[in-house]
C-alpha cells in the first residue's frame, strides 16, 4: 500500500483502521484491567484415566470488559504480549491460581499457560518461585504449559530457564503438541513431564485415520519417554473410549467440564464422573 496519508491507507484496506482503533482501545483498557478486577480465572479439570478421577486443573484467563463483555484470551493475550502487559497479567494468573486452588480446590495441582514473553523476562524463575512461596503453594503441584514456538524462538535460553524451573520442582507440559514445529528433538532435550495432544487431532479421532494414527504415535512416544500424555478437547464418549483403549494418561474437555470458576468446577467434575 502506498502511504498517501491516513485516509487513503484506510480506504485501501477497509476495516483496518477500525480494527486498529479497537485494538488500541482494548490495549488501553487492558492496562487497567488487573487493578480494576476485571480479570478472572476459569479452571478446567484434567481427568486421569487410570484412577478415573481428576488429576489437576488447567487455569484459563478470562477478561470481563465493562462495555464489551467477555473477551477471549485468544484476542487479549496477544495484545498483552505486544504491550508488555503480559508480565503483570501472567503474575496475577499464577498468584490467583495458587490462591484459589488452596482456598477452593483443596490445594489440587494446577497448570497455567505461560507465554514466551514471560519466559524471556529476567528473573522469571525467581519470580515464579517467590509467588509460590508467598502464597504457600507447593512447586511440585504447579505445572507450566508452554507451546513449541516458545522453545524455537530462543532455544538456548528456553532450555536454561526450563531446566532451572525443573530443578526447583516445577512441572512442565508441552502444549498443543503436533501443531507447531513438532521437532521431536525438543522432547529429548527439554525436561518435560507432560505432552498435550492438540484438540485438532482429538476432534477427528473417530472419523479420520491419520488423526488417530498421530494420536496413537504421541501416546507411544509418551510411554517410551516416560511422559504423561493428555488429550485436549475431548467432547464425546466415542473419543474417550478410543483414548482409554490406547491407555492415554489424562483427558480434558467439555465431556467432563467446561472451564469454570473454582467454586463451580469441583461440583461439575463430581457430577460428570458419577454418570
Ligand atoms: P490452550 O492452552 O490450548 O487452552 C485450551 C483451550 O481450549 C481453552 O480455550 C479451552 O476453553 C478450550 N477447550 C477446552 N476443552 C474444549 C473442548 O472440549 N472443546 C473445545 N472446542 N474447546 C475446548 P480458551 O480458554 O479460550 O483459551 C485459548 C488460549 O488462550 C489457550 O489455549 C491459551 O493459549 C491462551 N490462554 C488462556 N489463558 C491464558 C493465560 O493465563 N496466559 C497465557 N499466556 N495464555 C492463556
Ligand atoms: Ca494450555
Ligand atoms: Ca492446548
Ligand atoms: Ca491452543
Automatic annotation (TrEMBL):
**Can you give the residue ranges of the EAL domain?**
23-273
Q: Where in the cell is it found?
A: Membrane
Question: Which family does this protein fall into?
Answer: Belongs to the ammonia transporter channel (TC 1.A.11.2) family.
Protein's UniProt name? EAL domain-containing protein
Which section of the whole protein is represented?
Answer: 765 to 1039 of 1054
Amino acid at each position: 500500500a502506498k502511504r498517501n496519508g491516513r485516509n487513503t491507507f484506510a480506504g485501501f484496506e477497509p476495516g483496518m483502521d477500525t480494527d486498529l482503533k479497537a485494538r488500541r482501545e482494548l490495549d488501553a483498557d487492558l492496562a487497567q484491567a488487573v487493578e480494576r478486577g476485571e480479570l478472572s480465572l476459569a479452571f478446567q479439570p484434567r481427568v486421569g484415566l487410570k484412577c478415573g478421577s481428576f488429576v489437576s486443573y488447567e487455569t484459563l484467563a478470562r477478561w470481563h470488559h465493562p462495555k464489551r463483555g467477555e473477551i477471549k484470551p485468544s484476542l487479549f493475550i496477544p495484545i498483552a504480549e505486544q504491550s508488555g502487559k503480559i508480565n503483570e497479567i501472567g503474575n496475577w494468573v499464577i498468584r490467583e491460581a495458587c490462591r484459589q486452588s488452596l482456598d477452593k480446590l483443596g490445594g489440587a495441582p494446577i497448570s497455567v499457560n505461560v507465554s514466551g514473553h514471560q519466559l524471556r523476562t529476567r528473573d522469571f524463575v525467581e519470580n515464579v518461585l517467590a509467588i509460590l512461596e508467598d502464597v504457600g503453594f507447593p512447586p511440585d503441584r504447579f505445572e507450566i504449559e508452554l507451546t513449541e514456538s516458545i522453545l524455537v524462538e530462543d532455544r538456548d535460553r528456553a532450555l536454561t530457564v526450563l531446566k532451572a524451573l525443573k530443578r526447583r520442582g516445577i512441572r512442565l507440559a508441552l502444549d498443543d503438541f503436533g501443531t507447531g514445529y513438532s521437532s521431536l528433538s525438543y522432547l529429548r532435550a527439554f525436561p518435560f513431564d507432560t505432552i498435550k495432544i492438540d484438540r485438532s487431532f482429538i476432534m477427528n479421532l473417530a472419523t479420520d485415520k491419520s488423526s488417530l494414527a498421530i494420536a496413537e504415535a504421541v501416546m507411544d512416544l509418551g510411554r517410551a519417554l516416560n511422559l504423561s500424555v493428555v488429550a485436549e478437547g475431548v467432547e464425546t464418549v466415542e473419543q474417550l473410549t478410543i483414548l482409554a483403549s490406547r491407555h492415554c494418561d489424562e483427558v480434558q474437555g467439555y465431556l467432563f467440564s467446561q472451564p469454570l470458576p473454582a467454586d463451580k468446577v469441583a461440583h461439575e467434575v463430581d457430577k460428570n464422573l458419577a454418570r
